[in-house]
């Protein structure tokens, strides 16, 4: 991330004075008084003021002790406090806390300081904080006098982006929200009604359009960015604004957002057309060389590294960038969530649902069949290469030393009460990050919020729903089929056609491609909800695969089922204390 020349004292005091309650004025010395002119008058100080918006981005797999993978049925953990257990029981209140409901553990939905003191809050609180900072920044733009036009545009563009994006984060989990587009004071009317998802989406899109007009495609090509020698990873760009415009419109056109107007399984064609056009704009930016798909031999470096470098590539469009590294936060959270206890984990290992494993095709593009469970040549081999990049299986060597060979068979070294299924996440786990090899001092991992592969899949889905598999966005030379094949080709998978061999429809093929390409990146829980299918029986079971040391017998067994009621679990519950503030701010259905 760009190391802005920030007057830290001024900025910290500025945030304190303007966003929080203050000490009595007489308690300060003259040196502590900071004026608004000090905070907002120069680009350097103003950038310092808005910098906290970047820190409020939630990484779905490393915020506190939460992983996004276990809330939609992708993975499962044994511990009762885990968010996976909350999904099995349907007790989402324990994720958010608030009122009389205790927070079971620190997580990215927390609405108050958690009980173990690791982290203050999650999406609910941090998004509103980010929106407030963005609104204050936009309200004070006229005070930015000591700045070039480029610098003014960069400040305004970032503020507009974050105001839209934080509303999107709230909306994808909680439904339509009030759209707060001004810096509210106590004397203002604070009783803002909740909007429909479509009303909110239009406001988000307007902010993202403004951001796209103000922000550069590449910060390195700006006078500001050029000062930092390419160290601008993580800065909001035109591509990020247009990408989330496409994603917002994709959501707005999806069945959940249209279930009462168009029907429970219907897409809105006009929203899908707009989503495709926005995604095509990002693809054109990529065609100019700003973004490109990471070569498959470097695929996992987008998610985790063991050399101290930020996991970032030309495929990355938007993600949280954190300065820390080493054996602190990253290793602690990885160990709690992804590593078997024998190799240094905390016996809270999240293991992968067999039904999720089934989604990875065979290498020839045919779908996986349950009878292949008994076939040693097909079960875990001869599969889509992304399978083994994402998931470790029995007898895989997860480290450097032979002792790191994984044993998930009955009676194996990793067959214990904390390992529910014989699969663990590989995607965020580089070689050597374990207590046997101890090659973890430079370990870092991250969950991308948006990367180019997803843009192609957004384009494919939107085009398909608007005009069919061989359709195109207006002015584009790419069909939905073409876009899917670009993503598949990177992994060495064979191209598909509109016939969608083995699938019920090309729609189902696109959904499966999202499952495989974006696995464990915080997408699936939102996807199955926006498609209005999360309540269907086929999305509820967690399935284990039990087998012996010699791989002579394999048996599937259902170990748990997610509780997902329609409509109750399609939206997170809003903290009860918030819904009691005024009538227009109602609770979500079923809560």
UniProtKB/TrEMBL annotation:
Residues 314-591 form the RagB/SusD domain. Pfam families: SusD-like_3 (PF14322), SusD_RagB (PF07980). The keyword rRNA-binding does not apply. InterPro entries: SusD-like_N, SusD_RagB_dom, TPR-like_helical_dom_sf. Residues 120-222 form the SusD-like N-terminal domain. The keyword Protein biosynthesis does not apply. Its main location: membrane. Keywords: Cell outer membrane, Membrane, Signal. Belongs to the SusD family. This is RagB/SusD family nutrient uptake outer membrane protein. It comes from Neolewinella lacunae.
